[in-house]
Write a structure and sequence with these properties.
This protein is mainly β. The chain has a domain of 183 residues: Acetoacetate decarboxylase-like (Beta Barrel). It is 10% helix and 49% strand. It is built from three helices and 15 strands. Strand 5, helix 2 and strand 6 form a beta-alpha-beta unit. The longest helix has 12 residues. The two termini are 36 Å apart.
Length: 283
């Protein structure tokens, strides 16, 4: 094996070439939050439907990423809008497994995804039953139980239904994200804050409708329980390929707005230990 801190330029040209998260398998859950979720969105973002804000939660095994070994990932967000652009605003994503560090670092540094590395994610299915959870700091931030066969609400529908009958899978577009990117000053402040639209189409190869229950909890570093989910509409067990088609800046904040915006973004990206002196944990 040849290993060196010097990487030839010709190799660097392949950095994140055709980056994609392929063969994602696990649980996708959709439902409603309380309108008060607006208080958790950084202005100028607001719920796309202020009266009935929609949430999306997923917990999956990303079995074939193009840029890392396999890893597990979970994310929770609400459908929001920035001006006329609608997308999913993620509060936080958690990762575990052999590829988690590369998945987290590339997602944060390139796209502004609010990613952290957690202690443990489990995605399991036996026959018609599925169970998923995310654990960090000794707390199960989210736990999902699913039973295959039908949705929680009979009128609920998803575009990817019957995708397994389509050769090569069914491409679902319009599922982009609203993400924040920024720089950090020498003195620790935040600068060059912007919102980007992250165009991320998903190719569904399998989708099985399911009913689901969701339980959220908070730790001091990860306040998932602060997100007011009210109603699960439906869920599904899926196999998906996910890629990034483009990233477009849609809003730039005024230069002095960094601290004001970071009030909303901080907990999805950093722990409380950066804000205080006493922060020990022994096991």
């Amino acid at each position: 094996m040849n290993s060196s801190y010097f990487i030839p330029v010709e190799k660097l040209t392949k950095f994140m070439e055709n980056g994609a998260m392929n063969a994602m398998e696990g649980a996708y859950v959709y439902g409603l939050t309380d309108p008060s979720v607006k208080r958790l969105l950084p202005p100028p973002l607001e719920p796309a439907d202020p009266a009935c804000p929609l949430f999306m939660l997923y917990v999956v095994n990303i079995r074939e990423p193009t840029f890392a070994p396999w890893y597990m990932e979970a994310g929770l967000g609400v459908v929001a809008k920035c001006g006329n652009t609608v997308g999913l605003y993620f509060f936080n994503l958690q990762l575990s497994g052999p590829g988690a560090l590369m998945g987290a670092f590339t997602g944060r540094e390139i796209s502004g995804l609010p990613k952290k590395v957690c202690d443990r994610i489990r995605v399991e299915r036996t026959d018609e039953y599925a169970h998923c959870f995310v654990e960090r700091g000794g707390v199960k931030l989210v736990e999902v139980e699913m039973e295959m066969g039908r949705y929680n609400h009979s009128a609920f529908q998803m575009e990817q239904e019957n995708c397994q009958a389509v050769p090569g899978g069914k491409l679902v577009e319009g599922g982009g994200c609203l993400l924040h990117r920024y720089g950090i000053n020498d003195e620790g402040g935040f600068r060059d804050m912007e919102v980007i639209y992250y165009d991320s189409p998903m190719r569904f190869h399998f989708w099985e409708p399911a009913t689901a229950t969701v339980r959220l909890a908070s730790s001091i570093d990860d306040p998932w329980g602060d997100i007011p989910l009210t109603t699960v509409l439906g869920a599904g067990w899926a196999r998906v390929d996910n890629s990034v088609r483009s990233q477009t800046v849609i809003h730039r904040y005024r230069p002095e707005a960094g601290p004001e915006v970071m009030q909303y973004l901080y907990s999805g990206r950093y722990d409380r230990s950066l804000l205080c002196r006493e922060h020990q944990r022994y096991e």
